Amino acid sequence: MAGTLNGKTAIVTGALGLLGKEHCAALAEAGARVVAADLDGNACAAFATSLASCHGTEAMGLALDVTSERSVAEGRDAVLRRFGSIDVLVNNAAINDKFEHPAAAAEESRFEAYPLELWKTMFDVNVNGTFLCSRAFGAVMAERGGGSIINIASTYGIVGPDQSLYRKPDGSQSFYKTAAYPATKGAVIAFTRFLAAYWGRNGVRVNALSPGGVENAQDGHFVARYAARTPLGRMAAPGDYRGAIVFLAGDASAYMTGANLVVDGGWTAW
Q1: Does a structural domain hold residue 2?
Q2: Which residues of 49-156 form beta strands (DSSP E)?
């Protein structure tokens, strides 16, 4: 994959997250100039420095709040001042449920009790953030006549959550996977199809990537249950999506748009 994205400028939102860092590294390794965008500008700058050092390409850290129209517009202008072009956008920024009091998570996460404010907040980041970034950065691509937008969705945007995964060994429910995350990721997939149809004539390809669950220090019983439910018999490693990101960003997927690339170890196959 080295060199396949030489001369391209790629923006990754949520760049400081577990998968965000992997997406950035994959794009840098393929030769892209990478813009690592997240809320903490200083941390993004430090990460960009390490990317440039490790991969021998230019990188830029960018403080970005995807829920702020002003922040996104200012970010777009900063990238254009630095690199002069925008070729790839990875809409990776997203949040998942976090409950202030773990002991109350099982009750608060029940659909019947789920707080409206949490629902609204997740839509603001996961859906509105994808909308704002696509509009600002994608319009630059459309005006220039080419580019690739990659929206990070989820298997839970395709199938419903298996609540049994979140039970403790004693049979009690530690929490429920809520409606908000699947609903936002389903919206991202639908939005992907809209943009693909809307900007196709402008040469802008828009695809979704739906990853499966990533192993990240979860409880052992959860990892074992997830692995048993997956044809490949394991959760994903963080680096398992590098190839898919580079594929969707580059010319190897030149005739692909409006698609949802599912990389989940077979999770949705049965």
Answers
A1: no
A2: 59-63, 88-91, 147-152
